What does this fold into?
Amino acid sequence: MSLPESYLKPVVQLLAQTASPFDVPADPEIFSESWLEPALRHALSLLDEADVERNAALSSTGGGLTHLFLTADDADDYAVHLRIAGEGDLTVREPQEKSVVLTLAGTMELEAFRHSGDVAEDTPWYVRQFVPENIYACHPGTLHSVDQSEEAAQLVISRNGTPGQGRALTADEYREALGRIRTVLGRTIEAHTALALEAAPGESR
It folds into this structure.
């Protein structure tokens, strides 16, 4: 199943971006579009359509994060997971796959490290907090950790494997996570809509 909304398809193009700071994204216009509410609604629709038994086996939890499998597109070679808080302690990861992350709800903090020595000394060279409607790319081999609030959720679009680590979810765990994250995303849509309505009168003046 592909992502039907044309405004999200350019995100997949970022999977071809290298780690070089000189490699400009193929379609930088995505950063100026208001994509948050459509992405939230699309995530909710994917949750409603989820095949619980199948998706649970393709999901994982560990190192403080849970990756819920939502869908995949074999033609364009990418998978979509919803990342939320999970079981286990915060872990420094070294992903083997390239991924692009769209932040939907809550807050998350990313710490990146140059090498294992920095990890041992707990001296990250890059620290950033992300809020809803941010986009970032994570490249293979990048040592990093992700710490997020219980209300945080991100769409993770990746190639060459599952972005999570740890054990697979049971169907019951996947079902429970669906119910919890539906509430979070629903509240985020309501808050985003309310802010848009408050801003509308000022824009019309």
Q: What stands out?
A: The mean pLDDT is 84. The CA atoms of residues 113 and 121 lie 10 Å apart.
